[in-house]
Amino acid sequence: MVTAIVLIDVESSAIPEAAQAIADLPGVDQVYSCAGDVDLVAITHAADHEQIADLVPGHISKVPGVLRTVTHIAFRSYSQRDADDAFSIGSGA
Predict the structure, then answer these.
(1) Quick one: pLDDT at residue 46?
(2) What's the predicted TM-score (pTM) here?
């Protein structure tokens, strides 16, 4: 499984519609509107890099209002939930 974090610049008048359209795409798990250097952040998952290569330029970038994307591929997850899940394996919890 490949996780990609996609930073997305969007025309300001199109942010809500673009966010919903991106959230509705297969492979997109979450979309956050945010303050800072980008307008939206999308968390995506796909079976392989080829699917990410299709998702970002082929679908996310083509959503009306999207101006630019920057994609970061995740190597590992260090979330607390992942650690808790790992330690609970076999404990019946």
Answers:
(1) 96
(2) 0.83
